[in-house]
Write a structure and sequence with these properties.
Layout (H helix, E strand, L loop, with lengths): L17 H25 L3 E8 L2 E9 L4 H30 L5 H5 L9 H8 L15 H9 L11 H14 L5 E10 L21 E6 L6 E10 L6 E3 H21 L20 H7 L5 H23 L6 H13 L2 H14 L3 H17 L2
Antiparallel strand pairs: 1-2, 2-4, 3-5, 5-6
Length: 374
Amino acid sequence: MPTIKESPFSWLPNHQLHVLASLGYVDDLLDDAARLLRDHSRAGAFVLESVMDGSASEVRIAGLRPIPPAVSRLTADTLNNLRNVLEHTLFAAVEHDLGRTMTTQEARSIEVPAAGTEAAFNAWLNDKRRLSLPPLCNGSPLAEALRQLQPFTWQGEDTSPLQLIVEHTNASKHRAPAVAQTQLGEVTPDLRVPGLVIPPPTGQPAAVGDLVASGPQGTHVGLDVWPTVTIRRPASGQWKVLQLELSYIEEWVRLIALPALLGLKPNEVLRATTDVRAEVDNLREAAAVATDDPALTRNTRILVAEGVMRPGMLDLLLPVCRSRKERAAVRSWVDSQTDEQIITRHDRLSRAATDEARAREACRQLVRIAVRRA
């Protein structure tokens, strides 16, 4: 008897297919925010100036380029949609298990709580508005899935992701847009010289007048100054790297919270990148052809390729070039490589460079490749 091929994502029930579209939309929002932040960084987030202070020469921030207002709105939209997909999933699960349409009062009682104590969570379950809903009775699979997601059960080193979702979304909905600011990140000198001082990061938003570096008069050293866009946590006031905060919450929703609410098995993994801009007849098929390459992973790869690997490859190849023609060919070849290609090439070159002679020969081989393809 011929084997019947199982359709993609058949383990996801029809009443929960909305999850794929919601996650795909979140990925689009994350990608839009990442593009804006990359453009902001490329344009130069800071205006720097050199000033004299007694016998020292200082570099200070003279101006800051404003972060596009869309960034904070995209951040809020991302967090709101992550909260929404949890709420929608719970609502669909309860109504499906009931086997009937909920009353208006019952429907209004459906929410994903964020309880700080077990007593508070049990009180939520025993609220009279939910007592008529067997899917949410104490000890039911759905109630226990919710219990394991609560902040009071969280064992991670950082704040509970569910608590953060609630804090961020409540603040952006009722108080003010999400607050994003630029901090002064890593400052790397081209070379170390006696007396050069680079202050440690303050962990606070950058401001005009902040010291970037200082040294004796007459010190001339190039500096790589890296801006970091951060978001303020409403409850604690802590500033966190924006992309890392969104990644922390998105991955928890997609990889932990939703699988718990849906009762998924370990091999049943939700896809982040379903295309929601195309006309989609079948969300399962759309998810099946999507790449397993979330926006935040793609953005990290782009930043690594652009900020580390391409400059690093040029630093390795240009010194072994023997003519202007070779140098031009190398620059053109490095620019023509995709992010994946340049990362792979750089890694392979680093592994091949076990000693100075082998490193030089490996670099010369790549120069010859660049000249042939020029």
